[in-house]
Design goal:
Keywords: Hydrolase, Protease. This protein has about 230 residues and is mostly beta strands. Helix content is about 10%, strand content about 35%. The strands form four sheets. It has a six-stranded antiparallel β-sheet, with no helix packed on it. Strands 8, 9, 12, 13 and 14 form a five-stranded mixed β-sheet that branches. It starts with a strand and ends in a 6-residue tail after the last strand.
Length: about 230
């Protein structure tokens, strides 16, 4: 997954937030058409026995400075699925103790060849919004005492329906099933074996894909394409 979200807070995304049964809104949800990696995104997580909305740096590994925090030089806006069970990996503990979701309208993909962009696509929910599954961490700045939250999105192998758009990976899009979401956000649930089926390429809802000129301007240059959800097997 390339690092951008469509975080437009429209009626469909608002309904998605409502379905999450949030107890406390620490930060107002981000409402932006173009959110890039290392920007601030809104996450939903459980903390102190409450389900909360809070803003986080979309870059899991961050460094402290004398005045605050800055994204690490090591790229960490995504966490690969095959690193989740590697004990010394950045996402190992977070996968077991601090999972989150990021409610958005859609996400963006850029295909590269020889390190040059071939095309840009925006992918959005046909109806409502999407729930990418992610990880989060809290950091305390030893200089200022500031507490900052960071996050990443879990990425999966490419899906056959999306390889013409992005050939290397896709984000984990969680099914909007109450039991799955409750378990995913449950900080007391450390039996992560039940999440193994989620770590396979899967499209749980219909998507609309459209080629755009550039991420910042996001002008459509192709007709919308329907990407149909996968049937349950």
């Amino acid at each position: 997954m390339c690092g951008r979200f469509n975080a437009t807070f429209d009626s469909g995304v608002k309904k998605l937030y409502t379905s999450l049964k949030i107890n406390k809104v620490n930060d107002k949800p981000i409402d932006k058409r173009f959110v890039k990696a290392a920007d601030t995104v809104s996450i939903v997580r459980e903390k102190g026995n409450k389900r909360i909305v809070e803003n986080a740096i979309w870059w899991l590994l961050i460094d402290q400075t004398t005045t605050g925090f800055t994204p690490s030089k090591y790229t960490s806006f995504n966490t690969r699925y095959d690193k989740l069970n590697t004990p010394r990996s950045l996402g190992y503990q977070a996968y077991r103790h601090s999972r989150c979701v990021i409610a958005v309208k859609g996400f963006g993909e850029t295909e590269f060849k020889n390190k040059k962009p071939v095309h840009y696509f925006d992918i959005a929910a046909q109806n409502g919004g999407l729930l990418p599954g992610g990880l989060c961490r809290d950091w305390v700045n030893n200089h200022t005492g500031e507490i900052k939250t960071s996050c990443s999105v879990i990425t999966l192998p490419p899906h056959e329906k999306l390889t013409h758009i992005h050939s290397k990976a896709m984000p984990l899009i969680l099914p909007q099933d109450e039991t799955i979401i409750n378990n995913w956000l449950d900080v007391a649930l450390t039996d992560i074996e039940q999440f193994t089926p989620l770590l396979r390429p899967h499209i749980p809802q219909n998507l609309i894909a459209q080629q755009i000129d550039k991420p910042m301007t996001h002008n459509p240059i192709s007709k919308p394409e329907l990407i149909t959800l996968d049937n349950l097997t």
